[in-house]
Structures are given as C-alpha cells and as structure tokens.
Amino acid sequence: MVSRRKNKGFTLVEIMVVVTLIGFLAMLAVPTFKRIKLRALSASYTADTRLFSEAFQRYAQENGRFPPTSGVGVIPDGMDEYLNINDWNKTSSIGGNYSWLSVQNAGATIGVLVVAGATLSLDELELVDTWIDDGNLNSGNVITAAAGTIVYYIVEN
C-alpha cells in the first residue's frame, strides 16, 4: 500500500489569494480612515476657531474695538487674559500657526484669525470648509490665499 504524506503548509496560490484579499480590504479602508482623520482635524480646528473667536469678541465688547494686529504665534496686545498662551502658540490642526489681523474697512474694524502655513491640500481644506462654512474657499467665514497655505477665519463682531 502506498502512503500519502500530508502537507501541513499553505500552497503559494492560497497565500496569494489571502494577500490579494487583504490588499483589497486595505484599499477600501484607507480612504475611510483618511476621511475620519480629516473630520477629526476639522472638529479640532472648529473648536479652536470658536474658542479664539469668542475671546476676540469678548475683548471687542469690553474695549469697543478688536485688538491690534499681531505676528504669527504672538498673542495680540491686551489678549493675555482672554487667550491661553499654550492654545495660541500650538500648531493648528490644519497645520501652521495662528496670528491675528485687525482690518479697518469703511470705518468698521474686521477681525481675522489667520493660520499661516497650513499643510492640508486645497482639496482637504475645501472639504473642511464644506463641514464648517459654505464649501467655497473664496467666500464665507473661511477663506484661503497663497495656494491654501494661509487660511483666514473672519471673526464677526
């Protein structure tokens, strides 16, 4: 009688099928994970801008005007008691650092929260804008310049 030897391993074809299936599942999962991560970054950016916007609005109500313009990472004069220096100096969730711009326009002052050096792509910034504003990076409260590396958030008074 001829005895057969039992193989305890996998064949090359079986291994290739499993690797292909894993690759296919990963291909489906990666865009979902990227979108979830972008949604989290958007939520963090929204929370920061809301916090900063409220601080600048409180300052304007108490002082009758917005604080003067400041440089990147520099808390505007008089905002020490309204802003936490650690929150202001951290890198924003969309990349880059915060600064403040106070603009005179037709007798009124407009406050603009600026993120200089944003690292998200224009497509990603547009998606963030869709979630928190009007979906157009040229209008609304969120506006970009310099190929999206500078993001302006208009603070309403």
Write the layout of secondary structure elements.
Elements: H1 12-63, H2 85-89, E1 97-105, E2 108-116, H3 122-132, E3 142-145, E4 150-155
Antiparallel strand pairs: 1-2, 2-4, 3-4
- Please estimate the helix content: 40-55%
Low-pLDDT residue intervals, each spanning 5 or more residues: none
Name of the CATH class: Alpha Beta
Roughly what is the average pLDDT, rounded to an integer? 89
Shape label: elongated
Gyration radius, in Å:
25 Å
N-to-C terminal Cα separation, in Å?
95 Å
Beta content: 15-25%
The beta-strand count equals: 4
* CATH topological fold name: TcpA-like pilin
| Coarse structural class | alpha+beta
The largest β sheet comes out as: 4 strands, antiparallel
- Spatial order of the strands forming the largest sheet: 1-2-4-3
Number of helical runs?
3
Q: Can you describe what's shown?
A:
It is built from 3 helices and 4 strands, in the order ααββαββ. It is of the alpha+beta class. It has a single domain (12-155), classed as 2-Layer Sandwich (TcpA-like pilin), CATH 3.30.1690. It is elongated, with a radius of gyration of 25 Å. The chain starts with 11 loop residues before the first helix and ends with a strand.
